[in-house]
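Feature request, filed as a ticket because there's no other form

It would be nice if the structure record came with a short human-readable summary line next to the tokens. Right now we just get the raw output. Example of a typical job, pasted below so the devs can see what we mean:
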Amino acid sequence: MYQNESRKYYQALRAIHSNVFTNNKRKMNEKTFTRYTDGNIEGINNLYTLIGVLIKLLENNKNVKGVDYGCGSHYFVDDANSNYGWDTNGFDSDIDAIADAKTRYPQNAHKYHFLNLLMNQLPLADGSQDFVFCNAVIQHFSDEEVLYAFSDICRILKNDGIFLVIFKRNILDWEAFSAKSGIKINILDENEGMIEIEDEKMKTALKNFNDRNKNNIPEKYYSGMRLIHVYRVENIINFAEKKQFRLIDKIELPNKHTTDGILSYQSGKGIPNAALFFKKA
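Raw output as currently delivered:
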């Protein structure tokens, strides 16, 4: 359900306003500005803080190989290959996102691959990868799909391979976020973590398009509401432990502060997120 809704939503959004997706301006903003707030430790500034932790964890590895699981049209695969020297492949179930990535990053176009992640195993050998990066993906998965994904990720990782998963966290934090930001949310199932969130990008895009172009967009998206799955941190740890992962007990941020493998923070307009760092046991 989450996957189908996500695919339809992003296809609709991409059709009318492709510039909302990852671009060089957003990439530079991530590098330059503090976009994350209220972290559980000082120094969680932006996505590059998390990538910096990953770089530190892999610094003693030679010929690093890795995967961006659910890469979309994001720049991480391009960065990893061009700037970090990591042999990194990205896989995503959205064929349009992959086509977009190949256009945006021609030097690494061959590293972006279309694959139905929940119907097919990753086309990589068992125990062949040093890391897996999974950013804002499992919010589109059910619990059963997360367990399937974690199992395949575990399969391809080397022993002590690193798994970084970034996700939307804690439904109660979303209620506080909505009250503070004024962004509308609908809690559909509190126990399951099923919510709808108002997406300003879609609303803005629709305002800028004429009625003829709007005819191809499903009417239910006109409100800008989209379905996502929000997780408790402890649930993701439990899922990971079932699939042979253990939470890393000490990580170092670029500012040299250390903590355990759980980073919680608010991104963008105050959206509650968590990043967990695991090793394959």
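Something like this underneath would help us a lot:
The chain has one domain: 2-280.
The domain at 2-280 is CATH 3.40.50.150 (Rossmann fold).
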